[in-house]
Amino acid sequence: MIHTEYRYETRSRDRRLFVTLYGEIDHHGAVALREELDALLLRERPARLVLDLAHVEFMDSAGLGLLMGRYRLMRELGGEMAIINPNDRVLKILRLAGMERFFEITRSVKGEKI
Amino acid sequence: MKSRKMRGEINRMALRLPAISVNEGVARAVVAAFCAQMNPSATELADIKCAVSEAVTNCIVHAYRESEGDFYITVILFEGGLVRVAVRDRGCGIADVRAARAPLFTTDAEHERSGMGFVVMENFMDSLAVFSREGKGTTVVMTKRVGVSAERE
Lengths: 114, 153
Prior knowledge:
heterodimer, B: five-stranded antiparallel β-sheet, about 30% strand
């Protein structure tokens, strides 16, 4: 896929905000995505942010920066963050960066922690 | 001097693109499409895409942070499944390559760089070499042997 456009869907329940991301997360798209997610978080102020990466086909270290930034913002807001459904490729880079030390990463909503 | 065939070269490509962020996706897609003829596994191809994306992002974010320019990619495919990718820029160069390759190193913390670019390249490829001169530019050369693993997805 040459296009690195972003789409995302959100739904919230009991102060939990679910955000499903789509497409490829690289430096090109991370800037706009970061601004939109931050605006959303500051408006909703959820107690828990769950980012669903099931439809993220590609992520490089710009994605790691994006996730760490949102994790820090959630901490500032007094909340927590979790990642669900990364594919094998995305999971590989999350593990390389040791992201599981900062937030919960599960392969499915009902799945086990990695 | 040995011919390309004698060196075991199967095919090669060269790509020159302006260092603008939309070309991160273009570069990795073109390189992946070219490498597909080596019959890599899905994981091997994804590793190459990610490494190329990191190298190209460095060109855009760091090398030409205060200027404009192009980046150049050369991919050479060798017999035995060896892929060699070189990503070159004529940007500002890196003052201390060893420090730049360390995990979490970044000269641009305010924009949420993770400082993991070189770490990703090093881990997702078999070898990584970085050549840089301040004011002249940087060349990153990476190799990976593909199509040899038992894994097939």
